[in-house]
Amino acid sequence: MSVQDVLNIIKEKNIEWIDFRFVDLLGKAHHISLPACEVEEETFENGVAFDGSSIHGFRGIEESDMVMMPDTESVYVDPFTAHPTLIVMCNIHTPDGERYERDPRSIAQKAEEFLQTAGVGTTANFAPESEFFIFDDVRYESGMNTSYYSVDSEEGAWNTGRKEEGGNLGFKIGVKGGYVPVQPVDTQQDIRSEMCRLLQEAGLRIERHHHEVATAGQAEINFRFDTLTKTADNLMKYKYIIHNAARQYGKVATFMPKPLFGDNGSGMHVHQSIFDGDTPLFYDKNGYANLSEMALHYIGGILYHAPALLALTNPSTNSFKRLVPGYEAPVNLVFSKGNRSAAVRIPVAAVTPKGCRIEFRTPDSTANPYLAFAAMLMAGLDGIKKKIDPRALGYGPLDKNIYELSDEDKSEIRSVPGTLDEALDALEADHEFLLEGDVFTQDFINNYVDIKRGEAKDVAIRIHPHEYSLYFGC
């Protein structure tokens, strides 16, 4: 889409405001709005200035001037603003016109460029399955003398005795009992359908939606794959629309991996494949699960580098509350066809050559999608370059329910790190594959690790409410 095409949209849709957005290191979107009457072709050529020192992890106050450079391919109309507003995603540049090396969106684009220069293929396709909860109420506090959280949902298993409904209406969802029930058990069909309508109007191709396994309003909406950066843009759009649509219904949506104790958490299973033009490179009708040797080497790279990858794909302390055995969490670093207990699953149902792909099930939506997708691609490309064979390294295939294996058999299977600090240790020890082609830089890795170490420390030094249950009476 050209700049003129965008200007035509502004005129045709009577747009009043242009919302220029960028994404910080943690995956949070930020925006500055300009009156449509002040936006011209030069705005897209020169960019929009902002203060980089006010964004966590960017620049110091002595070098704070930065520029948002709009991407005309990313525009869509905001469905929530009272005044017609057009959203435009941007890359971050320095004042001298250089791409900012800590800009997550630029890193994603550099990963796509590296794929082509490496001569492997022309495009990498990604499709995340980003699960979330829709709650009716959320409250939390962390202070000197108090620490608690409380969430509630009309569907919650704990509400079978609640009176506030004016007579309890029943049909609550039991723990692990929420996978695709019909109404009235599923109370959120309409809100998910409305979310899908808004997502479609914003340009996403919606494939399906349904209630997920956990009690209390766990949901999933799937949208169609696209290339790496476009998919990351789409995931930012997806989360923005889901958060705000829930708010319009008087509810609150969260992508937090483990908001409830004792039930399934929310993951972000990421489907991936590489094409050369229109030719799928992961397909071989004679291979295991119809996978080519290239696809197997890609899996080898993902599984070999997985401990380091998790610092970028599961970058929160809460991520590792989800990654525990017993809740369908993919903690086992093996691959398998159609097996949801493996970290890498090969979908085999109704798959065509162009639909042949691998699914990395470990990530979650606390990840910055630009960084997570770029890191996964770089790990896979390293596997292709070095011909890392996951079969030779003991990563499978393992076509069994891993959760039902004996302890002796399980001891032979490598697991994901158990904490954010362990994942950060792995990233510090293993990140050369990310530096290839200057996709990530050493400065970025060091800065990112420092920020995440700070988060881990913030959680570690605080008193946990459960410690009162364990130790108050000592």
UniProtKB/TrEMBL annotation:
A Pfam family annotated for this UniProt entry: Gln-synt_N
Residues that, per the record, bind ATP: 207, 223-225, 271-273, 340, 354
The keyword Ribosomal protein belongs to this UniProt entry's keyword annotation: no
SMART domains the UniProt entry points to: Gln-synt_C
GO cellular component: cytoplasm; membrane
Cofactor: how bound: Binds 2 Mg(2+) ions per subunit.
GO MF: ATP binding; glutamine synthetase activity; metal ion binding
The protein's enzyme class: ligase
Chief site of localization: cytoplasm
Name assigned to this protein: Glutamine synthetase
Gene giving rise to this polypeptide: glnA
